[in-house]
Amino acid sequence: AWGTGNGTTSYSENVGALGITRVGSRMVIVAGGLVLLVTGMFGKIGAVFASIPTPIIGGMFLVMFGIITAVGVSNLQYTDMNSSRNIFIFGFSIFAGLTIPHWVENNTDKLKTGTVQLDQVIQVLLTTGMFVGGFLGFLLDNTIPGSQEERGLLAWRKDYNEESDGAANNLHIYDLPFGIGSKFCVANWFKYLPTCPKQLATRGAKEQKSNKADFERNCDNDINTKV
């Protein structure tokens, strides 16, 4: 929320939550951090959460991860799922992501290359179902011939072009809170400080509008030249 100087990664749960709620404001993270601070300072509040029965927590996780899984599968809505090509790629990737990690965990002695570090890397990758399924799906989708319409690329591009005009105006949602980068820390050299960067989102929106105006101007010039 405030910028960071260390390398970070994204979790599929968070990406799914963003897709479901359509909320990407950094203030949500700040508010969540404040809630955690208050919970840690007052033991009674923490005791309330600790007293929640395990079945209720399990049910909550079932709903949350179920919706996240459904959001991931919904990305296939633009593909032709009547195509044998797409059915094979989807089914093979899912099944391989479930079975290969299980086999590797039970047969670690069969994946010996002679280098301990390399063996560890291979085992970590092959025991991660998301990597196995995602990599095989990516590989098969880009090697097995298929039309752009069959792969859903045309629909995604059309949807992106329709949303790109309005997206530039909404980039301020991702700006840092409390005016950081717009009212404070506005010097050019502040962008090199990870904890106090300039407002890249706002600047990106202006650049996108400028590039669009330049593109339209060039198109008009080409038309006038031909006339």
Automatic annotation (TrEMBL):
TM annotation in the entry: 28-50, 56-75, 87-104, 124-144
Keyword Transmembrane helix: yes
Entry GO MF terms: iron ion binding; oxidoreductase activity, acting on paired donors, with incorporation or reduction of molecular oxygen; transmembrane transporter activity
Localisation: Membrane
The UniProt record lists the keyword Membrane: yes
Key words of the record: Membrane, Transmembrane, Transmembrane helix
Cellular component aspect of the GO annotation: membrane
Domain of life from the UniProt record: Eukaryota
Main location: membrane
Annotated InterPro entries: Cyt_P450_CS, NCS2
Record's bilayer topology term: Multi-pass membrane protein
Family (UniProt): Belongs to the nucleobase:cation symporter-2 (NCS2) (TC 2.A.40) family.
Protein name as catalogued: Uncharacterized protein
